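User: Can you recover a sequence for this backbone? Please restate the input before giving your answer.

Assistant: Of course. Working from this structure:
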């Protein structure tokens, strides 16, 4: 054991918490070496830090009590005491210490949930640190601006809505190629599809709109997967749209689309408007929503006219035929 003086106090000049004190009488005589000759964690970590030349120890403020004990050992060894900075903990939305029950807690898990590295860095930085009113802070700015003194003392609550907002910003700012490269393994993970060059080309045609809609890469993949994977199952709302009236609309759409010599966004949209005007009292929803359901399997998707153009006339008709066969009387 190390014998700790029982009078006086130990003082730590913390870069975040300020000057903090503990009475020596409250520090126990720590075990340094076990009976089998192996060192305890408290001694081992100090020796390891010293041998590696560690000058700054930055860790959660739940380690403050350990710091007083470690400082006693460091001073007994005659070594330089490192600079300490105890940062506040991250709490879950309910105010309790962040744990697995609040969601993912590993970096890899957040990556698989579709968050970009720069969004995570920006968000975690702003949880307990600020630079004026700046919310969007690039990695380069963080390196230039960061200092220990600006870290707050209070614990911060993890807010997924704010993280998603930042992530959406960085998705929009990223190049189409980069987002496609990041989405490829997610498509494999979620849908078991190894992206081909042709499928990549198809997705890239709608990447601008997919990026504008996305809060996470997982959401982007879910929004765009219909472009390379025809719907086999239809969600509840899409199924509702493919009722008797919806199937009637699809039959009209199919006949009109089949006769179109030029199948492009610029011609598809006017054609749908004409169908709505001639057959459904001008109600675009009566035509557009069944078409969206047939092509995507859902009622929430990127622009359906552009999607039809990207899919092409043959594939569009094929999907309409499948929906008619599946839901038609």
């Amino acid at each position: 054991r190390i014998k700790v003086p029982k009078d006086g106090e130990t003082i730590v000049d913390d870069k975040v918490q300020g000057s903090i004190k503990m009475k020596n009488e409250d520090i126990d005589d720590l075990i340094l070496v076990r009976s089998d000759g192996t060192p305890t964690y408290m001694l081992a970590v100090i020796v390891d830090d010293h041998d590696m030349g560690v000058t700054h120890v930055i860790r959660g403020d739940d380690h403050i009590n350990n710091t007083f004990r470690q400082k006693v050992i460091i001073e007994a060894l005659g070594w330089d005491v490192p600079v300490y900075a105890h940062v506040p903990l991250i709490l879950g939305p309910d105010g309790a210490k962040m744990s697995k029950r609040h969601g993912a807690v590993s970096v890899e898990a957040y990556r698989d949930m579709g968050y970009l590295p720069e969004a995570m860095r920006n968000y975690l930085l702003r949880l307990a640190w600020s630079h004026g009113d700046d919310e969007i802070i690039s990695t380069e700015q963080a390196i230039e601006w960061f200092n220990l003194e600006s870290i707050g003392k209070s614990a911060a609550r993890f807010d997924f809505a704010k993280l998603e907002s930042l992530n959406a910003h960085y998705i929009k700012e990223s190049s189409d190629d980069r987002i496609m490269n990041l989405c490829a393994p997610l498509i494999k993970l979620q849908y078991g599809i190894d992206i081909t060059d042709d499928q990549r080309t198809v997705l890239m045609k709608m990447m601008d709109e997919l990026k504008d809609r996305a809060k996470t890469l997982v959401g982007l993949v879910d929004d765009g997967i219909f472009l390379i994977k025809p719907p086999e199952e239809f969600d509840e709302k899409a199924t509702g749209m493919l009722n008797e009236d919806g199937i009637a609309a699809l039959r009209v759409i199919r006949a009109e689309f089949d006769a179109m010599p030029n199948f492009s966004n610029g011609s598809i949209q006017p054609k749908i408007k004409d169908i709505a005007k001639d057959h459904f009292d001008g109600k675009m929803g009566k035509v557009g929503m069944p078409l969206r359901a047939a092509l995507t399997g859902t009622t929430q998707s990127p622009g359906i006219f552009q999607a039809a153009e990207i899919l092409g006339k043959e594939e569009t008709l094929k999907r309409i035929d499948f929906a008619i066969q599946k839901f038609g009387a």
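That completes the design. Strands lie at 9-14, 18-23, 56-60, 83-87, 90-91, 156-157.
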